[in-house]
Design goal:
mainly beta; Cathepsin D, subunit A, domain 1; Pdz3 Domain; six-stranded mixed barrel; globular
């Protein structure tokens, strides 16, 4: 019963900790520093150095403290000390998770350095987002960067630039728009509008670069925010406190200042997964990476404003996984393939044509990623075709895993309605072939 927009990881967390002091980030050259990032499933992955160890983090406007995953695999390298046990409550229906709060850590981001940074290390090794992204992710960081700098996020050229407030000069052309920011638990909230039932509804949305979906809305009859008729039940993401389910739909239109996006994906998470986030009256939902990457941004938390302009991604159509298959990275596997090469050293025979070429056969071994089906939406095309959870994916549309990353593999499921998908999977040591056609559940019904 899962459908996934690439990967929807949602890092909205609450900390059960006492107030404690920490240092601030300082740019060594005094003015600014630029850091290049990778854009993976609408998420910003960038380099962070902690206590001299180079790591990969997600930039997340929705998280209030840095968090490290796979702590016990990194603890010797990181030399984390002065720890105490705490609990973190994230999105999802599970109980709060245990973490270790550590102080006096040195964190470097480009030329920005904090010599006394607090962070939280997750104890549970199963909370690991590498299988879903297919690349190493060691942690997340947000507020501690944004509070100390004016932060430019350029999705087009894929860089983050941190400016010292004292040296930043505000220069925006008429292509830029600016909105005020409000804050709830150190998380930025801005004004927007959605169109439902031919009615414009003002909403306050958390700007959440740590989620790869487009928009989340909380159902609220008092504000006319209701779930559309054309929906389907789906897996919406993976939070620190478990999986999040809800309904997917399409909005007529969405407006941020005077920039409008039509036919935009929206999700309505189940109340049980987001109850703690819904109780705050200021917030009606989240504005996530599926929308934020269509703009370039400048965040100024200190002065409480955000500026943005549309970029080359702005007019890209919104898509979703129409197969019902969710896959994840499960390590690597060794594959043996037959290779035939011309044998130019073979002696000529008088009985053979002078144009004959001999071939020698050999086997080569190749290390390829292992992808497994981690979930399937009920009654989806993939489920009806007979695919099952734990099937190991061998090829998709005649492309084997040596030419497919996790992201490229999942992209196959975002094609047009009716596109044929052919898959070979391994189940209990047996290779099996399946085929099905993608089915658009949201647009087809609305045209009847």
């Amino acid at each position: 019963m899962i459908n996934l927009k690439f990967l929807n990881i949602i890092f909205v967390v609450c900390f059960n900790v006492n107030v404690f002091s920490q240092g601030n980030f300082v740019i060594q050259n005094g003015k600014s520093t630029k850091i290049h990032f990778r854009l993976v499933n609408n998420l910003i992955v960038f380099p962070v150095t902690i206590n001299g160890v180079d790591l990969s983090f997600l930039l997340d406007t929705g998280v209030s403290k840095p968090i490290i995953f796979n702590f016990f695999n990194l603890k010797d390298e990181l030399s984390i000390h002065k720890t105490e046990l705490n609990h973190i409550q994230g999105l999802g229906t599970d109980a709060p998770i245990e973490s270790l709060r550590s102080t006096n850590n040195t964190i470097s981001i480009g030329e920005a350095v904090n010599l006394n940074q607090d962070l939280f290390a997750i104890i549970d090794a199963s909370i690991n987002f590498v299988p879903s992204l297919g690349i190493p992710i060691h942690g997340i960081i947000g507020y501690d960067i944004f509070k100390d700098f004016v932060v430019e996020v350029n999705y087009t050229r894929k860089f983050i630039k941190l400016y010292n407030h004292n040296y930043y000069t505000q220069k925006f052309s008429n292509k830029w728009r600016q909105l005020p920011l409000k804050f709830y638990n150190k998380k930025p909230i801005t004004e927007a509008a959605v169109f439902m039932g031919n009615k414009e509804i003002p909403v306050n949305l958390l700007i959440d670069t740590g989620g790869s979906d487009a928009i989340w809305l909380f159902e609220d009859s008092t504000q006319s925010i209701s779930i559309p008729n054309n929906t389907f039940d789906d897996f919406l993401g993976k939070g620190l406190s478990g999986t999040i389910f809800g309904k997917r739909a399409v909005l007529e239109s969405f407006r941020l200042s005077d920039f409008s996006l039509d036919d935009i994906n929206v999700a309505f998470p189940d109340d049980s997964s987001v109850q703690k986030e819904k109780i705050h009256a200021l917030r009606n939902g989240s504005l996530m990476g599926g929308v934020t990457h269509r703009f370039n941004w400048v965040f100024n938390y200190k002065s409480q404003w955000v500026a943005f302009k549309k970029n080359n991604y702005f007019n890209k159509s919104f898509k979703y996984n129409k197969s019902g298959v969710v896959m994840q990275y499960a390590g690597v596997r060794l594959v043996k393939t037959l290779s035939e090469t011309p044998d130019l050293t073979a002696p000529n025979s008088s009985s053979q044509s002078s144009n004959a070429i001999s071939f020698s056969s050999s086997y080569k071994f190749e290390i390829v990623p292992e992808l497994v089906i981690s979930d399937i939406r009920l009654s989806s095309p993939a489920a009806l075709a007979g695919l099952k959870i734990e099937d190991v994916v061998i090829s998709i549309n005649n492309q084997n895993l040596s030419s497919l990353t996790l992201q490229k593999a999942i992209e196959q499921f975002y094609g047009a309605d009716g596109k044929r998908i052919k898959m070979i999977v391994e189940r209990d040591g047996v290779l099996m072939k399946f085929q099905f056609r993608l089915q658009d559940l949201l647009h087809k019904k609305s045209t009847n």
